[in-house]
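Lecture 7 notes. Example A: sequence first, then its structure tokens.
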Amino acid sequence: MTTLDTIATGSAVGAFLPLLTAVVQRPHWSVRTKKIVAVITALVAGVVTVAYVGGPEQFQHGLPTFATLAAVLAASQSAYDLVWKPTSIAPVIEAVTSPNSAPTVD
């Protein structure tokens, strides 16, 4: 696989990552806590993407690995702000998967 393949795959993973992150997050958490969880989730997803697409040897190349991590993070944040939050899909998932909480939309 090439670096471009891992970056493209990372972007695709990042685009849908906010839906998975919404399952973990809780509506009553502070904005800062939610951001920390989103960033950590994106970095973990980036590492998994590099390992899956590029194989373990991909980690020997720092710049392509960093580029893939950055692609996952950028895509996840952009997709959340541009698609998942405005359509209320991510906030509803967050509310529905949270114990003892009613759906709320920011």
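Example B, a different protein, same format:
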Amino acid sequence: MRYVVGLVAELPPGSSKVVFPDKVKSGVGVFNVNGEFFALKNTCPHMGGPLCVGKIRGTSAAEMPADCQPEVHWVRHGEIVSCPWHHWEFDIKTGRTIFESRQKVRSYPVSIETAEELERLKAGVETVPVSVDGAIVVLEV
């Protein structure tokens, strides 16, 4: 099932939008990470919190340089979503937790299509590549 999320211009880099396709009652969060689009189920596997309305941020990474003075750096800015209930953090691109765990949030394919391509697909007509201008974000559920 295809679900039209909205225009690319309505989801600038660093933003997200939760949508509610019929097949996913809890909703799906669609994220723009530096111009790439990703979608995650809006349910944290920890306790069912509304994951995709959490803060979008980065995470810290430790480094041990040659002088043995530990350093902590802020990395992956805009690639991590934090559940608003208990602050579990997930990689927006993969749906995996950022800590060692087998927990994962379901992810969904996202495509960018022109309005003309979308109309052709609805009609079952073969499409050809075209330039993207006024593109639409489409979620595959």
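Note on Example B: Helices lie at 115-123. The longest strand covers residues 71-82.
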